[in-house]
Amino acid sequence: MAITAQLVLTALMGALLLGILWWIRTVERWRSYTPVGGGERLGESGYATEEKPGGLTRWLTTVDHRDVGLMYGAFALLSFAWGGIAVVLMRAELATPPADLLGEGLYNALLTTHGITMLFLFGTPILAAISNYLIPLLIGADDMAFPRINAIAFWLLPPGALLIWGGLLLEPLGIGIEGAQTAWTIYPPLSIEQPNPGVDLLLLGLHLTGVSATMGAINFTATIVTERAADVTWANLDLFSWTVLVQSAQIVFAFPLLGAALVMLLFDRNFGTAFFAVDGGGPLLWQHLFWFFGHPEVYILVLPPMGLVSYILPRFSGRKLFGYKFVVYSTLALGVLSFGVWAHHMFATGMDPRIRASFMAVSIAIALPSAVKTFNWITTMWNGQLRLTAPMLFCVGFVFNFIIGGVTGVFEAAIPVDLLLHDTYHVVAHFHYVIMGAIAFAVFAAIYYWFPLFTGRMYQRMLAKWHFWLSMVGTNLTFFPMLLLGYEGMPRRYAGYVLSVGPEAYFAALHQLATLGAFVLALGQLIFVWNVVQSWLEGPVVEDGDPWKLDEHGLSTHEWAWFDRRLTTTVPDGGDERDERVDGGS
Questions:
Q1: Which of 295, 324, 460, 553, CA to CA, is 20 to 30 A from 160?
Q2: For residues 165 and 90, what is the distance between their CA atoms, to the nearest angstrom?
Q3: Neighbours of 227 (CB within 10 A)
Q4: Cα 3 to Cα 11: distance, rounded to the nearest angstrom
């Protein structure tokens, strides 16, 4: 059964890769380059063509920030599919108490690849996709500060992904390489003692993704600081750009530390060093290094989504964001405090109680800046002229799920509670309410909000609302039972739970609810993929430069002015002739 599941997973991934290659070939006609001033011939979509190559050559050589953003997005969605298939298989295994579907080995390998994929190959790249495409437009810049470095940062990701997935992809070939079974935290001594070369591939792939993220962070910092238009000051810089700036600073400080720790772990595995051996630096050294990166990583992932919600939610509330300055200050506070709470992941390791108490205090205090944002979002909606479009629904869903994820996190920050809930499904539920219930919802809101900007077409609104409701129901049906499992002491990372004594039937019922929720979630994402692809190819063409009617509330922004200039470059009747002058183009 386990071998069959591996072959099916490999076949599905191969099909997805072929689908991506087909998609790249079909988008050759999408010409979307920067609008120019008078005297330059415009291409099919109203942009200067510059005679760039077409087909694969274009995508392999481009340094245009919008092209790079689209490639980041395609890569992130492929990774999302990989991680989603892995979790559906794991939930199918957990629907019954015995580990009789996948087996413990494959379950552990899928657990490892799911966590790392969703964090490093989906979470960070999908935010980079949105940032690459939009940051220059939002701040009035021509492009990123370092376009070639921008492209290099992306092209480090595909080989990194192949290395991370290498063990699972190569295992069916029977050449002695298997999927890594370390979980996403890669704790020694387990990660050192496994002779499987798939662990080495995983560590090398993670290192590449870290280098990619660091290069991108330096680029975003330089772009936001130095490339802003004259009318974009620190006092009116949009909230999304603020959060990307703070995220980039976090990455610059956190990811190099992870890279150093990965190199040390590779040396321990292959060259006989003892950085993390029991008789050397000790396994706890890895935990300190990893979580000093790992907890800022949570805010690296959640800050830009907070910025997206702060940016999009007011557009459909008919008013400006309440308390702009306080949202900015809370963003800065989260960026700083995120580096002072890493040891709350280690309360159960036996550290000095005085040190443990100080980390508990900071871990509870870090909830305050997030609470400021949450109250500001709610106040912005209060007595507003709400329009329940798909982007707005996902923003509201973000706030709802983030409150649950945040409150459960405050409970886990308390040492006595954490000692009971540590390494149980309560931790899994808390984390996923933030990752899936909040971060993914903000990303979906952004995709729907800027879909006309990306494609010049409008998505199917009814399918988008179906996507929201299936995602909302699926998220809570999947993760709320996990909170109850955690309170009953169900440990995470177990493929089976056959018990001679204990609440086996209770565990089974809750796991079956969670598995049903996972399938509802998967159905929602299939609708999302269908809606995006079909609408991108055949959706109704947007002819209004203000598709969301933002001017009526005085809430229009730079990117929609850019979009309006784009539309003015095409002849109204859709003919082949193009106006060679763009009034006000830059």
A1: 295
A2: 17
A3: 17
A4: 12
541 φ/ψ angles, rounded to the nearest 5 degrees: -70, 135
| Among 350, 351, 397, 357, CA closest to 377 | 397
Q: What is the pLDDT of residues 369-412, one digit of tens each?
A: 999 999 999 999 998 899 999 999 999 999 999 999 999 999 99
CA–CA separation, 393 and 372 (whole Å) = 21
73: nearest Cα among 14, 30, 12: 30
Which stretches of 187-238 are DSSP H helices?
Answer: 190-193, 197-226
Structure-block tokens of residue 458: 């409008």
* Amino acid at site 305: P
CA distance 456 to 45: 9
If DSSP states are collapsed to H, E and C, what string results for 180-201?
Answer: CCCCCCCCCCHHHHCCCHHHHH
Q: What gap in Å lies between CA 33 and CA 65, rounded to an integer?
A: 9
Q: Which of 331, 251, 263 is nearest to 293 (CA)?
A: 251
Residues contacting 313, CB < 8 A, separation 6+: 321, 377, 380, 381, 392, 395, 396
Closest-CA residue to 482 (of 535, 427, 528, 520): 427
Neighbours of 539 (CB within 10 A): 18
507 and 97 in contact (C-beta within 8 Å)?
yes
Rounded-to-integer distance, Cα 364 and Cα 357, Å: 11
Dihedral of CA atoms 225, 231, 234, 236 in degrees, nearest 10, equals: -140
Q: What is residue 491's three-state secondary structure?
A: strand
pLDDT tens string 549-584: 998 888 888 899 899 888 876 544 444 433 333 333
CA dist 457 and 158 (Å) reads: 29
